[in-house]
Amino acid sequence: MAFKGRMIGLLAGVSLAVSGASALAAEYTLQISGWGPPTHGLNAKMFPKFIEMVEEATDGRVTGELKLGLAPPPAQMDMVMDGAVDVSVIFHGYQPGRFNTTKLIELPGYSGSAEAASTAYWRVYEKYLAKAKEHRGVKLLALHTHGPAQLYSVSKVSGLGDIAGLKLRVPGGVGGDVGKALGATGIAVPAPKVYETLASNAADGVVMPMESRVGFKLTEVAPHTFEIPGGLYRGSFAYIMNEDTFADLPADLQKALEEKVFGEPLSRELGKIWDEIDTIGREATLKTEDNTITAASVADMAAFDKIRGQVIDKVLLELKEQGVDSINAHEMIKQEMAKF
Fold first, then answer.
1. Are 74 and 190 in contact (CB under 8 A)?
2. Angle between helices 326-338 and 114-124 (to 10 degrees)
3. Mean pLDDT, to the nearest integer, of 177-194?
4. 259: CB partners within 8 A, 6+ apart
5. What's the rounded Cα separation, in Å, for the pair 160 and 300?
6. Among 28, 150, 197, 229, which residue's Cβ finds the most Cβ atoms within 10 Å?
7. Same-domain pairing of 108 and 229
8. Rounded to 5 degrees, what are φ and ψ at 97?
9. Where in the sequence is the domain holding 201, given as residue range(s)?
10. What is the pLDDT of residues 294-304, one digit of tens each?
11. Does some domain include residue 335?
């Protein structure tokens, strides 16, 4: 039922005009579901880049239309599987138990940009993780990460020891493991709900990438940043497509998308954009009155190294028990990122 007869007309959403000039002549229009504010980098920059790459690869025969507010973040996978939309982006941490190999890229301690991490992620996926078939039911288009996640709080955190006892919004996956190891009480809230959670004093802080300073207006409700080199974790995302949608495209268009867009090319571009929006978030923090950035001390880093090691060992063992060569996969990520 690709490109026709979908539920889109029955769902309340906001449509954003993000396709290029060739959209008017396109033969196929991918219905894309986005979540988060319209101004967030996911919607304002990443999906437009995806559409641009698709149009360029297909000479304008395929384009996309972005719609917001169709469903909350955890529902995006099922939306695509059911054919309600053609394409979406999912955050793996929102679906605990459904994805496990994705924890590999979430581990703290990787050194490098989101572009480097996203490129390494796709390469390691192809070599070590694809056989787990965790994205079965959809076509996987790309994998990417956000930048290093840091702690943003209502009251200033001066050191790692101040985190114990705080109520923090943390994601699932490795982010949750790190928060627990630091002694924080985790609060499970999707990213679009973070602002109101902090504004209502339901949480003391949040752990997210630097882009959230602008993307989710954290400069207003969590003015204080506690920063650890390499971050507390990296979030894992996937671009996914309905399998029937792809199958219904002519063979020449499938070939063009596979060769020029899907996989490493798109993964790398998405990571590159995340580096850009992380920079925007940091600059906004530095410019906003009463916002502060506190760097972790040498003692903080020594204490965190122990926690980081425990979390890494736990995840690598968990993945090994699932049949993943986790030790070599972990090393490959570090080696691929070092190439950048």
1. yes
2. 140
3. 90
4. 57
5. 6
6. 150
7. no
8. 90, -25
9. 149-233+283-312
10. 999 999 999 99
11. no
Could you give the 3-state DSSP secondary structure of residue 307? helix
Domain identity same for 48 and 177: no
Would 79 be classed as within a structural domain? yes
Q: Are 119 and 145 in contact (CB under 8 A)?
A: no
Same domain, 161 and 98: no
The number of folded domains in the chain is 2
∠ Cα 96 79 193 (to 5°) = 60
Instruction: Name the residue with tokens 């449509």.
Output: 15
- The domain that holds 218 is classified in CATH as 3.40.190.170
36 and 134 belong to one structural domain = yes
- Is the same domain home to 184 and 308? yes
Q: What is the mean pLDDT of residues 49-68?
A: 98
DSSP code, position 134:
T
pTM over cut 0.85: yes
Over range 57-86, report the average pLDDT.
96
Residue 322 to residue 302: CA distance in whole angstroms: 31
The Cα–Cα gap between 82 and 281 comes to 35
Any domain includes 325: no
* 127 and 190 together in one domain: no
pLDDT of res. 23: 53
Closest CA to 15 of 34, 2, 28, 1: 34
pLDDT tier for residue 5 given thresholds of 50, 70 and 90:
very low
